[in-house]
Amino acid sequence: MMKSRTDEEEFWHSTKCKPFTFDDDDDGFSKLKESKQAVNNIRPLVDEEEDEDDVEKVSWSGEPVGSISWSVRETAASSQRTDRESTFPKTSTDPPTRSLSGYSLSSLFKGKTKGGNFQAFTDSLSDSSVRLYAPELRKPKSDYKDAVSDLSPEETVQRMLQGKVVSLEKFRSLQDKMCLLDVSVSAHDGNVITAVLIYLKRTLSKDVLFRELESRQTALRHFIHYLTETRDQRLLLELLRALGRTEDMALLQYKEHLRIADENKRRDFLKSCLSLPFSAEDSGHVQDHYTLLERQIIIEATDRQAERGGKVEIFQKFPRRASILNMPLVTTLYYCCFYHYTESEGTYSSPLNIRQTFKISKKQYFVTALAARAKLKAWSDVDALFTSRNWLGFTRKKSPLSFQRVVDILQKNSAPTQVLQEYVALVDDSDLRISLAQKLKCHDIVINMYRDLKDRQLLLGYLKKMERGSVEERKINELLNNSQIRWKN
Amino acid sequence: MAHSARKDSPELPDFSMLKRLAKDQLIYLLEQLPGKKDLFIEADLMSPLDRIANVSTLRQHEVDKLYKVEYKPVISNSDQLCFLIRPRIQTVKWICDVVNADKAAGKARSYKIIFTSQKFYACDAVLEEQGIFGDVTTDEWPFYLLPLDEDIISLELPEFFRDNFLAGDQRWVRTASNALHLLHSLYGPFSKVYGIGRCSKMVYESWRQIKEGEQKTDKVDIGKVFLIDRDVDYVTPLCSQVVYEGLVDDIFRIKCGCVELGPDVTSSDKSIKVMLNSQDKVFNEIRNEHFSNVFGFLSQKARNLQTAYDKRRGMDIQQMKTFVSEELKGLKQEHRLLSLHIGASESIMKKKTKQDFQELLKTEHSLLEGFEIRECISFIEEHINRQISMIESLRLLCLLSITENGLLPKDYRSLKAQYLKSYGINHLLTFANLRQLGLLVEQQPGETLTAMESKVGKLVNDKTAGKLTDAFSSLAKKSNFRALSRKLNLVPKSDEEYDLRVPRDMAYIFSGAYVPLSCKLIEQVLERDGWTGLEEVTRLLNAHEFAGPGSNGADLAAKNDAQRTILVMFLGGCTYSEISALRFLGRERGFKFIVVTTAITNSSRLIEALLDNHV
């Protein structure tokens, strides 16, 4: 194996192997392209010899017709038809059989199938692989009769662990109840713990139950989870209050806003959350949430009208794709930088106002505004973002973001080369600058850097990549013929 | 490309029996409801079910129509409805609604709920409350284990992670121990069980209870077991995966051993579903490879294939006949596989190049090394500011927090505020979850105690130091990653060259930058046959380690193959990278690892399980 690996190394790239990088287009990627091409070349040959029937046989052919997921999809598609047929309930002539006792047939032998006996499996496997596994249908009556008789907490829990139906009614004194709870906790089965808790919830007053749970963390967590799952919000809040977990209480109430679809109701609800006992930090965030939604509602109403009116150019040119309601703050800022960039600080939708109200950091504001203006190809706005004037009146480009990132953002918004060039030139690190310049075809930068390095060889190499008759080609040739330059090679 | 394995590695046991067993049990249950019936299947049970049965199996047992549980009113004319569900309160409530709606409409039908893998008492309580207890029959389908491949078995319980670690609900402990028991009965008896973590310990204890009074089987397939909680090691699943199988999972999401590849990969107009397992010859050779080696391999394969096809030229009729009957089919299949994996690699490459993967990896490696943390923070900050993937930002924040034992209060506040601004203020709830789990926390003022603690530890005897630590650790679960990393040598020195084509240790799965903690623990414990000598490590991990006998009947001294077949059970999920690392370890040491996991996880699934920004 090792040998063939070296062979292939030689075959695929005779150059010395370089460390692999994920953004190295030249190396792995092109290798991949070659192999893809090789495989694609074979394709016609294969296709002509393809016979339909063995398609399903190959292991990776995914979901064959007849798989369950496939069939469910089929049912879904056809169910629309069946819908209409079934408006009238069909009265069944023979009533379905149903076990009327609380115990279904299966629950009678449950104790046997659970956990305990895998002997049956091994049996069924050893004698014949097709035989169905069937647990004993009936156990002696004595196994069930004691469901209501006197069982110790341990025995009770033991039975519950086996999935048997047990009555808990005999645990009446608080001491018995707590003993049962503690035994269930020590058995490490959440199912049983919850079962006991359901019983306790029914037979103990809240105050007593809460008090007892406070010192029983495992049981408490089960109870909280149970209340969460059954959506017993009121009791859960009471519990948290009793435990003095006010912050959790506040968060839980705040979470309710997610269920409110109507934006005005949601805003009002958030307003009512402001007085909840959040931590100092979170309380500021919730305040922001309320303010933001309030503002989004106003902006949304105004802009929707403006868009419908058809008088505002920007909405005609770039119709809004979605409503701004319930979007994150940064998205809202982006939106405002896109549609309301020039507004004075006094309006709700002015980016500057938003920046101020929500104390958005300089960097965050910068990144967002840059992306929005670049998207609109408003290059002069982009330019203005960087320009700062010093006291002598000279302008200088400054950025809270590395220029490499800036280039990245601009490039992703398909900025033209002239624009990119300006910012690539500002990248500090010269290696990075040249690789960016090459990647983004900012030829001038590359050429000038090679010239400054007095590196004739690199320049010659770069010349080959230029188009015939292009400005760049001419420029390089001029440089190469320039006798003033003292090339180092 | 498969590394030469030691010749004496044991064979893997045959796990197809588990599928057959589950299928037979299901059939048995379906027959409990004779006659035609419509079957409603919980959405996340469909793929697992697909792996063990198909529609005709169900049809044979009089299942008429199949539906997915969608919490909508039921449209069905059948007078028998059967529901195959997980024991979830929400689903049971929906069934109650269905039954009550029928009652109101005067429609009489019979209903059966099959819970898998078990019914919870809380479900019964719902049936009772909704007044339909007795109107429905219930059953349990003990479908615990789904073999995803010859060495991977899944419980297909992704909710195990959140329920157990975030909510602190132990409902699945029993399920895990039943699963272990099933494996023990069929492939044991186990001679030794090691483990670490609170949940692991509970599973072990509850399994010991179940197995009392069992019989001994003569043939032993699995000798040793290692149980590990996911919260012992959060660092590993939070790292970007760079081994092929893990990368495919990170990008395309492998579901139940199957991946759906879109038109961009198949270079056609439709997407296809592909099973990824050892049956796929091409995949089998690259799945454990670092992604950088994959191209070379695929290129080589493509060339070989070309040569094989080229043989046709100049063949006479007879030769051609032999070629077609003997070789062609294999070649065609290989061709199909090859173009598929080339397509996938290409698509991975494109996506990764676009998102500055290289820089992301650099940041991760710096965090693991504890190097240039300020730069890492500003990288993460920029990530957040630019609203790049919400999950990715959170993942990096968590990685920062665990490796640094929490964030400085100033950083925590600022990063959290920026995060909320970028991705929505309702993520307040997500942050509360992450704090509760200890994944993303502020450093406590008392944190400086760690330094003091170690000084004190040197002065007083170990026992007192241990107590001291307990007192500290009870305040908040600290990750102690740096100390662990030093102690176990998890981060190799960065100045050394690491040849990814010839991996020298498990670190290769993270480009040589980090040996996964989880796998390192397994290696160490197996080497020492216990935790002796690892006291400092277990102390840093908040203890809960154990090592005990498996079955009394099992011969401990037996030096047979079974003792080198080791079952590793991950409670709360494991990643494909970890599986690759264990396969590597197995090849080096002559072990065979069988991974049993509650679900396959990766960084996105882990984080998504903790999000709370939706209803």
TrEMBL record, chain A:
**InterPro entries named in the record:** Spe-39
Q: Which UniProt keywords apply?
A: Cytoplasmic vesicle, Endosome
One BP term from GO: vacuolar transport
Biased-composition ranges, Polar residues, are 69-80, 88-99
What are the boundaries of the region Disordered? 69-99
Question: Where in the cell is the protein located?
Answer: Cytoplasmic vesicle; Early endosome; Late endosome
Main location class: cytoplasm
Family matches, as PANTHER family = DEFECTIVE SPERMATOGENESIS PROTEIN 39 (PTHR13364), SPERMATOGENESIS-DEFECTIVE PROTEIN 39 HOMOLOG (PTHR13364:SF6)
Protein name as annotated: Spermatogenesis-defective protein 39 homolog
Query: What is the scientific name of the source organism?
Result: Anabas testudineus (Climbing perch)
Q: Which gene encodes it?
A: VIPAS39
TrEMBL record, chain B:
| Major location (coarse) | membrane
Instruction: Cite a single GO BP annotation.
Output: protein transport
Its membrane topology, per UniProt? Peripheral membrane protein
Specify the superkingdom: Eukaryota
Keyword hit for Transport: yes
InterPro entries registered for this protein in UniProt: Sec-1-like_dom1, Sec-1-like_dom3a, Sec1-like, Sec1-like_dom2, Sec1-like_sf, VPS33_dom3b
Subcellular location as annotated: Late endosome membrane; Lysosome membrane
Keywords on record: Protein transport, Transport
Q: Which GO terms describe its cellular component?
A: late endosome membrane; lysosomal membrane
- Gene3D superfamilies to which the protein is assigned, alphabetical: 1.25.40.850, 3.40.50.1910, 3.40.50.2060, Syntaxin Binding Protein 1, Chain A, domain 2
Q: Does the keyword Transport apply?
A: yes
Which family is this sequence assigned to? Answer: Belongs to the STXBP/unc-18/SEC1 family.
PANTHER family according to UniProt:
VESICLE PROTEIN SORTING-ASSOCIATED (PTHR11679)
| Protein name (Swiss-Prot/TrEMBL) | VPS33B late endosome and lysosome associated
